[in-house]
């Protein structure tokens, strides 16, 4: 039996694409590298996998130490493995992604970064490594997921208007949605229910408030329910 030393041993990194939605626009979290390669350039937060940790533990450690954000629920995105993706040598990257409300987290750049900050999706700098491809893949995954599974409800207040929910989906999908059709689909889905209350204090209007019925959604998923926007 051959030992592992008989085979090539590429390094493994974990990269974390963190999307943010603040009620107005979709952004992504980037850090400015202090060290080579790509010193002074913006990249997706990432780092090398330690031998004694899981991929998930590595992602949590990297986000905590390099951005100040801890204990996020992350979904695995894709594994990137072009031979020339890292000038230091053969490096595979396992990427994760998440969608959060930036206003609920305080950023803190680690000692290997000049800065860490949010950038609107439409105003991104050139990224180091192959992170333009990583981000493109993450955006496509987020948009695809939004068309078949309710996402982002945790970004809104527990009670929200249909307009606020529509704004969220329009930012993610980067399209304009028909107001009446969106309202109809949300009501037909059974996962959004009216609270019987209205938001007071807005000029010339008092929009109806709704809430996400997660228990109903979980039951529908068990029976084969599919959410379609």
TrEMBL record:
Annotated membrane-spanning segments are none
Annotated protein name in UniProt: NUDIX hydrolase
Q: What molecular function terms (GO) are annotated for this protein?
A: hydrolase activity
Q: Which residues form the Nudix hydrolase domain?
A: 9-142
* CDD domains, alphabetized: NUDIX_NadM_like
Query: Matching InterPro entries, A to Z?
Result: NUDIX_hydrolase-like_dom_sf (IPR015797), NUDIX_hydrolase_dom (IPR000086), WH-like_DNA-bd_sf (IPR036388), WH_DNA-bd_sf (IPR036390), WHD_NrtR (IPR054105)
Keyword terms: Hydrolase
SUPFAM superfamilies, alphabetized: Nudix (SSF55811), Winged helix' DNA-binding domain (SSF46785)
Which Pfam families does this one have? Answer: NUDIX, WHD_NrtR
Q: Does the keyword Hydrolase apply?
A: yes
Q: Does the keyword Hydrolase apply?
A: yes
The species is Arsenicibacter rosenii
